[in-house]
Structures are given as structure tokens and as C-alpha cells.
């Protein structure tokens, strides 16, 4: 049984959702031809929106899995430029009013909006990806130990560099991205003390485009490559595509983030230069929240994914990486030590 009664979908309801959301971001709704007429999971995207080949697309993959399995209507809503917390709250409230459950804000920027919307709709389950501060009774804070996967990315970079210079490009200078940097730098240092890490942030705030500007990512990576970096790791959302483009143009390695970027069609022409990706399974976290609501036992509180749970990991899609026995052995050892607690990965 679902936690709240589902509402029958009608064409008028779908139209009203589109109208309600037109002022605060575009939306798309979908239902299978034999849908039971019930509304389920809705997600509101972070900066960069769908098509970032990273964080937001992973959330959409979770939505698609839930839609297929539970055969209900879903909604996914794009952000708008320069939007406020009030705009985000209106977006979530509109989805909850339409009967979607759960409603997920993708990204830490939704914290205030999720908290406010959850208070107004106590019988709806809300989720927020990458924030642990909401802590409301009907909210699941879906967070990850990104520093652990980033440590493994550091091991891979340290074992793969020939110049002993590697780079880190962060999208926005915030605590969340500091976790990626800290883990990466620690992994490099522990594996190859002779290697130097060049670290750079694209912007101080998300509003300045740090997560949505491939040109900024490309420029930052080119600067690091000029300083002899031959492996560059980006934790920058859509901006990371520019980092990957710069790496390919200069025939050095890029390390992707969040999703397996080697396997993504939009990045196919660069894939020979994508060594690996530090992944977090946002799709699984979003799907699991939807399933918990469908099962009548909604997740709430802090829900963490880490190496032990398998929800953060390092991809092995590139055969050159997967077949490198020395690199794989080092990563396996590091992973085991992190899981056992022998290695404590820093978060800042």
C-alpha cells in the first residue's frame, strides 16, 4: 500500500500540472499504455538539467526504472536560470498537489525548498539528493560517501600518470565538492607521494555556472594540462564535459564523475581518453526511495551510499583500465582497506 492514496490521472490533471509548473521550470510527464492511473515518482533537476551525462541523468535513470516497474505516471522538471528558493519550493509543492509521491529534489540547492514543501505535505514522502541537513519526518536525505570513490580515482590517477602531475577541477567551491577533492588528493598522495595535484574551482556559486559551463571546464583543464597534468579528474556536473573534451584534444586521461561517462553516447568521441569514472549510484538511491513508498515503508532520515553498499564505485568500462593488473590490484587493496576502516578518507 502506498503511504497516501493515489489520485487518478486525467488529461486535465496533466494539463494543470504543466500550467502550474510553467512559471518555475519545464516538465515532462509520462505513463505506460497500461498504467494503473496512479501518480508516483517526480524529480526536480539540479543546475544543468537533464542531458548533463552525469548527476541529473542518473536521477532520471532511477525515475525510468521506477516508471517501468511500478507502471505509474512520473514527472521530471527542469530548473530555470536565476531561480530562487521560493521558485524551487513552488515546483515541489505543485508536484505534491498533483499527487506525486515521492517528490525528489536533485541537489543540495533544494534543501530549503524540500524542508518547506515537506512541512506543507506531511503525508507525501520527499527526497533530496546530496544534502543531509533537512532531517524532516517525511524526508529521505539521500547522501553518498563521494570521498571514497574519489580516493580510488586518486589511486588510478597516481598509477597512471607519467608526468607525476594530475589535476582536479571542481565545479563550485562548496563543502560537497571539497569531499571529491579531499578523497582524490589523499588517494594520489597515499599511492604516489611524488605526484603533484593541481586543484581548481570554476566558480564560488552555482549561479555563476560552475556546474553548467563546459567552456569553463575546458579552459580550466587546458590550464592544468599546460602545467604537465596528464590525468584530470572533474567533479563539475555538465562543466565536466569540457574537461573531458580538453583531455581528449591533448591526448591525456580524464576521469569522469557520478555516472560511467566512458559509456555515454554523448561523450563517445572522447571515450578513448576517459580512464574511469568515480560513480555514485543516484539512480539506485532514487529508485529505492520510490520502491520504499510503493512498499508502504517510506525511507526517511539519512540514507547513505558508500563503497560497502556498492553505491559509490569506480567504473571499469575502459578495457585499457580494466586490463591493467597493477592498477586494478592497487584499487582492490585500497577499496578493501577503506571498507575495513584501515584507511580513513578525509572529507575536507
TrEMBL record:
Transmembrane helix in keyword set: no
InterPro entries: BMP_lipoprotein, Peripla_BP_I, PnrA-like
Signal peptide: 1-20
Record localization: Cell membrane
Membrane topology: Lipid-anchor
One Pfam family linked to the record: Bmp
Keyword list, A-Z: Cell membrane, Lipoprotein, Membrane, Signal
Domain ABC transporter substrate-binding protein PnrA-like: 46-346
SUPFAM superfamilies named in the record: Periplasmic binding protein-like I
Major localization listed first in the record, in broad terms: membrane
Gene3D superfamilies associated with the record: 3.40.50.2300
Family as reported in the entry's similarity comment: Belongs to the BMP lipoprotein family.
Protein name stated in the entry: BMP family ABC transporter substrate-binding protein
Organism encoding this protein: Streptomyces lanatus
Species classification: Bacteria, Bacillati, Actinomycetota, Actinomycetes, Kitasatosporales
Amino acid at each position: 500500500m502506498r503511504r497516501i492514496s493515489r489520485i487518478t490521472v486525467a488529461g486535465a490533471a496533466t494539463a494543470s500540472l504543466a500550467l502550474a509548473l510553467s512559471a518555475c521550470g519545464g516538465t515532462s510527464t509520462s505513463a505506460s499504455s497500461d498504467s494503473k492511473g496512479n501518480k508516483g515518482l517526480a524529480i526536480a533537476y539540479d543546475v544543468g538539467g537533464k542531458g548533463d551525462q552525469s548527476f541529473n541523468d542518473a536521477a532520471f535513470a532511477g525515475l525510468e526504472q521506477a516508471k517501468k516497474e511500478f507502471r505509474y505516471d512520473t514527472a521530471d522538471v527542469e530548473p530555470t536560470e536565476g531561480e530562487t528558493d521560493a521558485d524551487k519550493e513552488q515546483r515541489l509543492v505543485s508536484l505534491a498537489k498533483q499527487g506525486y509521491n515521492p517528490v525528489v529534489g536533485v541537489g543540495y540547492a533544494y534543501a530549503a525548498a524540500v524542508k518547506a514543501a515537506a512541512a506543507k505535505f506531511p503525508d507525501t514522502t520527499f527526497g533530496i539528493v546530496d544534502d543531509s541537513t533537512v532531517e524532516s519526518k517525511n524526508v529521505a536525505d539521500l547522501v553518498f560517501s563521494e570521498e571514497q570513490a574519489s580516493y580510488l580515482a586518486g589511486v588510478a590517477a597516481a598509477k597512471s600518470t607519467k608526468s607525476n602531475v594530475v589535476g582536479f577541477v571542481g565545479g563550485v567551491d562548496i563543502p560537497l565538492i571539497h569531499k571529491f577533492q579531499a578523497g582524490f588528493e589523499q588517494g594520489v598522495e597515499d599511492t604516489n607521494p611524488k605526484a603533484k595535484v593541481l586543484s581548481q574551482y570554476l566558480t564560488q556559486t552555482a549561479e555563476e555556472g560552475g556546474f553548467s559551463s563546459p567552456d569553463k571546464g575546458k579552459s580550466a583543464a587546458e590550464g592544468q594540462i599546460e602545467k604537465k597534468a596528464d590525468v584530470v579528474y572533474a567533479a563539475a556536473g555538465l562543466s565536466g564535459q569540457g574537461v573531458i573534451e580538453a583531455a581528449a584534444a591533448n591526448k591525456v586521461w580524464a576521469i569522469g564523475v557520478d555516472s560511467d561517462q566512458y559509456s555515454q553516447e554523448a561523450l563517445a568521441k572522447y571515450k578513448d581518453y576517459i580512464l574511469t569514472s568515480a560513480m555514485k549510484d543516484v539512480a539506485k538511491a532514487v529508485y529505492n526511495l520510490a520502491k520504499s513508498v510503493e512498499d508502504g515503508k517510506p525511507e526517511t532520515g539519512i540514507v547513505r551510499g558508500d563503497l560497502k553498499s556498492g553505491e559509490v564505485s569506480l567504473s571499469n568500462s575502459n578495457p585499457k583500465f580494466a586490463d591493467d593488473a597493477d592498477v586494478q590490484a592497487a584499487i582492490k587493496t585500497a577499496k578493501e582497506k577503506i571498507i575495513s576502516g584501515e584507511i580513513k578518507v578525509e572529507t575536507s
